[in-house]
Specification:
By secondary structure, the protein is α/β, with parallel strands linked by helices. It is built from eleven helices and 33 strands. A hairpin with a 2-residue loop joins strand 8 and strand 9. The structure holds uridine-diphosphate-N-acetylglucosamine and magnesium ion (MG).
Length: 446
């Protein structure tokens, strides 16, 4: 397919290499994921706290996809829901899992009137970047197939790309490959770009006479070659295009993504004392002058303001905002809470479903008791409140501005502005009782 008038115009306007700028993706996410040995669909497994499919959709959107068609199994409601959380998404159902070629075919109905270019992505390739997709598009010319190849340290069971100079002659799956072919170190990432019309005409010719009895998408390359249609390739870093088929590969993708997230955080000025024990989520937002000390785990949907210090040994869970200059110390867990500017939670505390104002001081061992076994309840703590150590704050609860909670209190009722809340049994001192106690003990031991 020569480019449409719109693409031609765009190509003229933006110069060389942008000929495939307008594109739709097909994202394969309907596989059984057998090798994961899990009841959860493979693409829902998380890397940096977000499902693999989320990462792929995000990269596709960032690269400028006009639409993403996600191929799903009909019964995978969670996959559909995730896919539709991206406004550019449609999905198509693959009824039976008959291979990657058959999966792509499921998108044909969605694309009946589409005359543009397709980028095929794999839902099990979470580390793909928008730049990789752009490079792929830039490497492609009209009426060609273009694919991303990579050369990993261990080519494992990836499909091998048979090349001659910069052209691809074919792709052979590991299970179908000869010893000699298995020695090829150019691997197929499973990511391709080509015109939609060409794609669906090639898919019509796929056969399943191979080691796995499947319709391999990879066979479109040989079919294209037999018609004189060229396939070219561009390179990507192994770390960006590794495909995740089992739990060990999932952990490898996690390690790479953690490294990327930490490097990006440090680049924008965050101090990480020990990158190896710092865990960030893909959507973690970090302000300026933030220090994160070792053994800190930050869950999804967390925002950390400027000048905040966190850790060591801190667990910041989902939906938490930490205001400017706040200090979160060791063995502190925070969940679904807002921590106001300048507040301190320095040691051994659980703060859940809470709103803390500014300059609040939470003493060691303070617990918001937010759950009664049935429902979660909120705790509101006003500006400048001081909570003494080892206090239990039984939610729902409000502690107004300027109040003080005496250490060791179990607070069940609202504490009004500037008052002291004290709720602990009164102390009795029994004079010389220690002496008689010790005497009794030592005589009974004889
Ligand atoms: C595939 C490629 C292989 C490549 C590797 C890169 C084929 C035949 N092989 O192998 O050349 O090196 O990716 O990671 O394409 N899926 C469906 N429906 C199906 C089968 C699979 O939607 O019927 C989806 C899966 O959910 C997955 C993607 O397609 O997201 C790839 O399938 P997978 O089984 O992981 O293929 P690989 O064996 O990794
Ligand atoms: Mg795979």
């Amino acid at each position: 397919m020569a480019g449409s008038w719109l693409q031609e115009a765009l190509s003229r306007a933006t110069g060389r290499g942008k000929a495939m700028s307008i594109f739709t993706t097909i994202i394969l996410a309907a596989g059984n994921g057998t090798r994961m040995k899990s009841d959860m669909p493979k693409v829902m497994h998380k890397v940096a706290n977000k499902p693999m499919l989320w990462h792929v959709l995000r990269a596709a959107e960032a690269a400028g996809a006009s639409k993403n068609i996600v191929i799903v199994q009909d019964s995978h409601e969670d996959v559909k829901k995730l896919a539709l959380s991206f406004p550019s998404t449609e999905f198509a159902v693959q009824k039976e899992q008959r291979g990657t070629g058959d999966a792509v075919k499921a998108a044909q109905e969605n694309l009946q009137d589409f005359d543009g270019n397709i980028v095929i992505l794999s839902g099990d390739c979470p580390n793909i970047s928008a730049d990789d997709i752009s490079n792929l598009l830039n490497s492609a010319k009209s009426n060609q197939i273009s694919l991303i190849a990579f050369s990993p340290l261990d080519p494992a069971q990836y499909g091998r790309v048979i090349t001659s100079e910069n052209k691809v002659l074919g792709i052979v799956e590991y299970k179908d490959a000869s010893e000699e072919q298995r020695n090829i170190d150019v691997c197929n990432s499973g990511i391709y770009a080509l015109p939609a019309k060409l794609l669906f005409s090639l898919l019509d010719e796929l056969k399943s006479n191979n080691a796995q009895g499947e319709y391999y998408l990879t066979d479109i390359v040989t079919i294209a070659a037999s018609k004189g249609i060229e396939t070219v390739f561009c390179w990507a870093d192994e770390n960006n295009v590794l495909g995740i088929n089992d739990k060990a590969e999932l952990a490898a993708a996690e390690a790479i993504m953690q490294d990327n997230l930490c490097q990006a955080a440090m680049k924008q000025g965050t101090t990480l004392i020990d990158q190896g024990t710092t865990f960030l989520s893909a959507d973690t937002k970090i302000g300026r002058n933030v220090v994160i000390k070792p053994f800190t785990y930050i869950d999804e949907n967390v925002e950390i303001g400027d000048d905040v210090t966190i850790g060591p040994f801190a667990h910041i869970r989902h939906a938490t905002k930490i205001g400017k200059g706040a200090k979160i110390g060791n063995f502190v867990e925070i969940k679904k809470s807002n921590i106001g500017a300048g507040s301190k939670i320095s040691h051994l505390s659980y703060i859940g479903d809470a709103n803390l104002g500014e300059n609040v001081n939470i003493g060691a061992g303070t617990i918001t008791c937010n759950y009664d076994g049935f429902k979660k309840y909120k705790t509101d703590i006003g500006n400048g409140v001081f909570v003494g150590s080892n206090s239990s704050l039984i939610a729902p609860l409000e502690i107004e501005e300027g109040a003080i909670i005496a250490a060791g209190s179990t607070i069940t009722e609202k504490v009004v502005k500037d008052s002291i809340g004290i709720a602990r049994s009164e102390q009795k001192n029994l004079a010389e009782k220690a002496l008689s106690f010790r005497n009794n003990k030592s005589s009974s031991e004889k």
